[in-house]
């Protein structure tokens, strides 16, 4: 037994020594005084490309800026400088710009300029998404809460003593607010900016000046001019997805990136306020055409305005209810002209157009822009109502005036050809327009004489000069 126990002890010791011999040697411990040294930033040299966004954020401006980022990457620019002045815009277009900026392989600086300019709503997201955010003195940033046409961008206050909070005033704005706040928070965290203020800009619609934004760590630089900004950025280190780079902007070549003519046109009409102006202008011109038949220029111009408005609707988010109400108001104006209800239908038309105009682009889930009610909708509809009222009053007086002429009294009466008679057209006779036929071609503006009457049509000839 003793001999067997000794053999087992010897065998176990041999196994332990074999296992210890097979283990790899441990790496020597790092010295406590050694520090991890970050790699030196790479000098980023090259031209400075300059893009300019002035106006609303829409697909035209989004394509322009995304193409500018691609151009800057292809030429290995030292910096893409985006000069910005915007009241906001479409959410989808803003998201396209922000995504392109966050994954850009070129340093991007957004400069809110000139003094008095703003980076409101969608512009706030774009500014905070840049590697470097800069502003001119006197400019402002913030107010990124979704709004509706009446400017009602606040939720109902919540009473802590109530058992249940009151429902939101607008569920669409509530949903848009939550999504927008989450996106803003993500952007601010990724760029190392003031997250608390960024979320307040969405939920509480706060806005600050350039100087306050710099103190709150919302932006990086306050500069009076482009030259001062580029001088301040020279030598600044920027973190890209490919690594850290050091900007070399002093003495760099400046290249302006211009927006194409078609893009500029689309950029203009894809503003809800401009689109509404085209709709109102088209309605007024067609109203003139229908009120005074025979004059073709207002009808052609009105149709062209409505075509431009239809093009804008291919991109701008809109509501059919607003369009129907606006068109219904125009129809009530026409009904008043025909029926003469002493202003009842006319007043109903004004109310319908006011509500319709304010609701057409009221889509806070898709855009932080709408047509301002008090500065755009009310003045435009009021002007239309004033003009339409004058036309309705004048035409109504003519229609209600009893005829002072018999059929026989028209014979031999002289008038003027309001259109060319070749051989048919219209003539002006005693302040009225008549359809007329002539045996010979008569130019517009020539004097004519009635020689026969066929129902409601006149037969005329060129007037013979009397001695």
Low-confidence runs: 23-35, 149-169
Task: Provide the spatial order of strands within the biggest beta sheet.
Answer: 9-6-4-3-2-12
* Estimated radius of gyration: 36 Å
Biggest pleated sheet: 6 strands, parallel
pLDDT averaged over residues: 79
Strand % is 15-25%
- Amount of helix: 40-55%
> Number of DSSP helices?
15
- Overall morphology: elongated
- Strand runs, count: 17
Alpha carbon gap, first and last residue: 163 Å
Q: Can you tell me about this structure?
A:
The protein is α/β, with parallel strands linked by helices and 467 residues long. It is 46% helix and 17% strand. The chain has 15 helices and 17 strands. It has helices spanning 2-22, 59-74, 91-102, 122-129, 171-191, 195-203, 210-215, 226-233, 261-269, 272-291, 296-313, 320-339, 344-359, 373-400, 407-410, and strands at 42-44, 48-54, 79-85, 108-112, 118-120, 132-135, 140-142, 207-209, 221-222, 237-240, 243-247, 254-256, 414-417, 424-429, 432-438, 447-454, 457-462. It has a six-stranded parallel beta sheet with strand order 9-6-4-3-2-12, sandwiched between helices. Strand 16 (447-454) and strand 17 (457-462) form a beta hairpin. Helix 2 runs antiparallel to helix 9 (261-269) and helix 12 runs antiparallel to helix 13 (344-359). Residues 23-35 and 149-169 have low confidence and may be disordered.
């Amino acid at each position: 037994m003793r001999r067997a126990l000794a053999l087992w002890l010897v065998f176990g010791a041999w196994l332990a020594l074999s296992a210890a011999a097979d283990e790899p040697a441990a790496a020597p411990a790092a010295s406590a005084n050694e520090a991890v040294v970050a790699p030196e930033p790479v000098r980023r040299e090259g031209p400075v490309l300059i893009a300019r966004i002035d106006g609303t954020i829409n697909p035209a401006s989004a394509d322009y800026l995304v193409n500018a980022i691609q151009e800057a990457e292809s030429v290995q620019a030292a910096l893409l400088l985006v000069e910005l002045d915007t009241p906001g815009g479409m959410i989808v277009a803003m998201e396209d710009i922000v995504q392109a900026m966050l994954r850009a392989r070129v340093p991007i600086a957004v400069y809110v300029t000139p003094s008095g300019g703003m980076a409101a709503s969608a512009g706030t997201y774009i500014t905070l998404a840049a590697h470097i955010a800069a502003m001119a003195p006197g400019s402002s940033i913030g107010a990124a809460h979704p709004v509706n046409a009446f400017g009602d961008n606040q939720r109902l206050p919540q009473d802590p003593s109530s058992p249940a909070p009151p429902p939101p005033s607008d569920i669409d704005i509530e949903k848009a607010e939550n999504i927008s706040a989450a996106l803003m928070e993500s952007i601010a965290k990724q760029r190392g900016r003031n997250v608390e203020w960024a979320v307040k800009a969405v939920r509480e619609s706060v806005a600050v000046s350039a100087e306050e934004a710099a103190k709150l760590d919302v932006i990086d630089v306050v500069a009076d001019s482009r030259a001062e900004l580029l001088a301040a950025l020279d030598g600044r280190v920027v973190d890209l997805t490919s690594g850290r780079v050091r900007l070399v902007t002093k003495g760099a070549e400046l290249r302006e990136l211009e927006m194409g003519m078609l893009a500029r046109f689309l950029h203009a009409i894809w503003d809800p306020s401009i689109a509404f102006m085209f709709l109102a202008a088209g309605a007024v011109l067609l109203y003139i055409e229908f009120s005074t038949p025979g004059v073709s220029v207002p009808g052609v111009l009105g149709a062209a305005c409505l075509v431009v408005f239809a093009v804008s609707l291919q991109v701008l988010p809109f509501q059919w209810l607003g369009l129907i109400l606006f068109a219904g108001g125009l129809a009530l104006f026409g009904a008043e002209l025909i029926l003469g209800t002493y202003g009842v239908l006319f007043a109903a038309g004004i109310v319908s157009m006011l509500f319709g105009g304010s609701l057409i682009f009221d889509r806070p889930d898709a855009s932080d822009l709408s047509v301002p009610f008090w500065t755009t909708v009310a003045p435009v509809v009021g002007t239309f109502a004033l003009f339409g009222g004058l036309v309705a009053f004048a035409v109504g007086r003519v229609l209600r005036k009893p005829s002072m002429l018999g059929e026989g009294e028209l014979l031999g009466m002289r008038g003027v050809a309001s259109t060319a008679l070749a051989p048919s057209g219209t003539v002006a006779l005693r302040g009225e327009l008549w359809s007329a036929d002539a045996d010979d071609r008569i130019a517009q503006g020539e004097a004519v004489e009635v020689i026969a009457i066929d129902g409601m049509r006149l037969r005329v000839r060129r007037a013979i000069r009397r001695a």
